[in-house]
Structure formats: C-alpha cells, structure tokens
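The records we work with from here on pair a chain with its fold. These numbers are not coordinates but entries in a learned vocabulary of local backbone shapes. To see the layout at work, look at the sequence and tokens printed below:
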Amino acid sequence: MSLLNFRRKETPAAPVGSPEVEAFLQDYSIEVMPRTAEKVEDFRDLLPAGTRVYIAHIEGTPIEDMVATARRLNADGYKVMPHFPARIIKDRATLANWIAMYQGEADVKQALLLAGGVTTPHGDFSDSMQLMETGLFDEAGFERLHVAGHPEGNRDIDTDGTRLRVDEALRWKNDFQTRTDAEMAIATQFAFEAQPIIEWADSLKYAGITLPIHIGIAGPAKLQTLIKFAIACGVGPSLKVLQKRAMDVTKLLLPYEPTDVVTELARHKAENPDFNISHVHFFPLGGIKTNANWAIEHGGAAAVPANAE
C-alpha cells in the first residue's frame, strides 16, 4: 500500500510567520548554479550572513566556473558546499585536482557527494560511496560531507519502485560517519507533501540511520516551471499536489509557494523535538531573489543590505 493512502487526523496548520515556522527556517540553505549566480548582483542583499550555499554541478559545466562561483560566495561570507557528482569525475587524480582548486581558491571545507544525473559514468566512479572511500576529503581536512536522500525513492536506482538500494546506501553512509567521525547529513530531493516526508524520515530513524536530514523544498515558482523540474528530477507521488493544482483554472496562473508543506513540517518538528529533519534546503526554481524574499517573509532571517553601515 502506498504511503500516500495513509492519512492521519487533520489538525489546523500553524499560521505563516508563527514561531514554529520561524524556528524551522533558521539556518536554511539554498542551491545555486554558476549561470544563475551570475544573475545576482549581490548575494548579501538576499541571504543572511553565513548561509550555506550549495553549488550544483551540472554535466558540461567547467570546473573553473564552479570554482569561480565558490570563490565569490566565500568572499561574501557564505558557507560554500559544491556538488561532487561521482559519475562525471574521471578518476582519483581529477577528484584530487577539484578538491585542491576549491580549497586553494575558495577555502571550501564542505561538499555534497552524489552519484549525479548522468546514466553512464565518465570514468572510475559511479556512486558517492566510492568518492568517500578515496579518503581524499579527509586528507584535505573537509569539515562536513552531505549525501543525497530521496523521500519518495529514486527509480534510477530502485527501478522496481522500492527503496531497497537507496536505503542500503544510506545505511552504509551512516556507518561511514560512525567509523570516521565525519560530520555528515542527508540533503534530499524536493517533495510537495509533508506526511510522506514525515513517514520517510521516521522510517530512517527506526532503521537506525541517525544522520540529520536537510529536507529539500522547492521555492516559489510558476506552476508550469515547477512541474517541468519535478518530472525531470524524478519527484514521486507528491507530484499529484501540483497536478491537482494545475486542474484548477483559478490557481493555474498563480505561482506555487511551499507554505503548506513547510508549515506542516514545522508544526510536526515543534510537536516532536527529536524529529530528525534538522534544516530546510531550498531549490530556488523560481529564482534566487524570489526564494530569498519568501524565506524572509515567512520567518527566515533577513539579509543585511551590502551597502548598510
């Protein structure tokens, strides 16, 4: 039976801007790409100081562009976390070179390790575990490693629709943290419905996976844009939330906002302090400025303008 068939008793959602939502949005992170970062005149006008900013590495992006974006964000006072997609990294020497470039030019000490979106590996690596086993991140003194999570499964990995292989990989990564004392967390794909996210997070806890979860949330965007990205990224059953909205002509042209899913998760966290979702990670599919402003309006800390005294 699908988890989506289970429904708990509904309770009123916390209002926007409530203490629960504000607490849930503290220390949120956000994702950028070099080409989207170029459109932002000054990140300090949008993001709170010290925000963790992931830099997505899409196939075909030169490593020099990635490093330049990391250098800019580091200079502005942000915690930079570039993606290291295993399947587009040719070999150990390439990985070592990337690490050296990031550290030498942008003082990078954090990384998101993932398999990557390509089907056929470009070289020696096919998954993030192989990157971790090289020992290069430890040798370079990286302080934090994040790994990917999939609340609704990943059909590229588990083609039968189960979560057997992705959960097995998370158990391996959890054990890696235990035996290495690495500071780690799970950064997830975005989803649009809170209850399946809650059930997935609880299932990890029951399985003994103690890595904290940074839950992926799609930022405000046009509905058509969001559906396109959701399908491309393999979002699972919660895609029906968008499809149902698209069938309502009164809402079709209105932008989607993640208020409902964030509010319900925030309320659950307030009611269950040991809930293993610790942070929010935004995918700014409708633009970085739009996402940053939404976060501020809903309780996230405001940025200090770059030209302020």
